[in-house]
Amino acid sequence: MQGEKIYSSDKDVKYIFKEGNKSVNKLIVIFSGYASKDSKIKHKYNYMNILSDTNVHKLYILDDNGETGSYYFGQYLNFDVDSSVISLILMTARNYSISLENIITLGSSKGGTAALYFGLKYKLGAIFAGAFQTKIADLITMRRPESTDFLLGDANSKDYNKRYNQLNSIMFNLLNSPVLSNLYLISSENDWQYEIHVKPFIDKLNQLSINHDIYLSPDMQNHSEISIYFPQYFRKKLINELFNIHMVVL
After folding, report:
1. Which of 117, 123, 190, 216 counts the highest number of beta carbons within 10 A?
2. Which domain holds residue 160?
3. How many domains does the chain fold into?
4. pTM of the full structure
5. What is the rounded CA–CA span in Å between residue 60 and residue 3?
6. What is the pLDDT of residues 150-197, one digit of tens each?
């Protein structure tokens, strides 16, 4: 793809960087979701056209690990992709003198999970996540067996159950340390994944009194329609972050 580069670290990471106005001290990091099962392109960047008129720095990071992607973790949860991705993000931010609180992560479905993961783990400024998954092991064993093999290994291996439990709890465990990110979340009760993945996460946010913005779209009819309604949501909310209107009280 035009403009695509490779960042070499623990694991090679493919990315596209779009430079914005240098006076705008913001970086948006966009993560990719799963391609549809019948798609000829198994690894693709998301929301490139939607953000084309947003005059800030944009870093699109591809998840091409395994056959169809693996949530940017790494094979058998060795987290080499994780470390390479955050290294790329921090290098880009340093090149433009962008602080952690001015880094925004964004994505939907698998990309939404990644936006949450990197934003929460590395204490970045804001997170925009749509129709994300939290019980990842449950999801991939049911819907993405190729990711199951890549992330968890053979079901008969001695570490399989350990990895399974680790992957199912990894998103919730991120809430055990201080949350410094502004959280903007969208889903729909019409999405079958909502009750399984989104609602338990929202319940824990409420239990821990973690401030967040959650929008449940009445118009979104199924999971795949997040690609329609998520851009409408984040474009409205993004202005808060670009003009430093902070939701979280530290």
Report:
1. 117
2. 4-242
3. 1
4. 0.94
5. 11
6. 999 999 999 999 999 999 999 999 999 999 999 999 999 999 999 999
